[in-house]
């Protein structure tokens, strides 16, 4: 299965804006004590990474970043793959990782629970937000016009602008469908989509059949393979 074929078999039908991922850092676990007036300077750092698609290749993908940080900070910086964003937060709280890429909810949790601070804000194409998109394998049902292609992907209902909100009126048509959703800790994969469905008047417990998936790529595959109509 080629990536292009997969992407062209799913269509983005609606989008809502989500705050982009931030790079956050913790100095020491909450509640920790020390006999010195200041925390001991670290001799190495661990960066918690969360896979959005290829877990096996994520550490290699992040290597230019960890190499750059190693050179700039003059200490080893190593990337490790966490199971999900929540696991990355807890790794930072336990001192197993000092840096993490976190979305808005987990950033707040890391800050509130463990004193994490924002170090960098992700920017994509000049934007500090990105669209959380609904996708479907049934464009005849959800698209008001012919899907348009952009970057080897298909979009309809104005979602090709990649800004959001767009196409939200089509969400009501999701009633009765199977919908792939990530875990409750995912802003783009659960929190914002579920909120959008509720704002459209749908009961997300009874009006849709939730199909749990573990990652963004699993959501795409669920729609592509027909296990879910919307993701």
Note the gap between the termini.
19 Å
Number of extended strands: 11
Please provide the ordered H/E string of secondary-structure elements. Answer: HEEEHEHEHEEHEEEHEH
Helix content: 25-40%
Low-confidence stretches: 1-8, 29-38
Number of helices: 7
Q: Beta fraction of the residues?
A: 15-25%
**Overall geometry:** elongated
Please outline the major beta sheet.
5 strands, mixed
Radius of gyration: 20 Å
Structural class: alpha/beta
Mean pLDDT: 82
Across the major sheet, the strand order is 4-3-5-2-6
Summarize the topology:
Layout: H1 3-8, E1 11-19, E2 22-25, E3 45-49, H2 58-73, E4 77-81, H3 85-93, E5 99-102, H4 104-114, E6 117-121, E7 129-136, H5 139-142, E8 148-150, E9 153-155, E10 178-181, H6 187-199, E11 209-212, H7 216-224
Parallel strand pairs: 1-9, 3-4, 3-5, 10-11
Antiparallel strand pairs: 1-7, 2-5, 2-6, 8-9
Give me some keywords for this one:
disordered N terminus, single chain, 4-stranded mixed β-sheet, alpha/beta, 231 residues
Brief rundown of the structure:
The protein contains seven helices and eleven strands. It has helices at 3-8, 58-73, 85-93, 104-114, 139-142, 187-199, 216-224, and strands at 11-19, 22-25, 45-49, 77-81, 99-102, 117-121, 129-136, 148-150, 153-155, 178-181, 209-212. It is elongated and about 60 Å long.
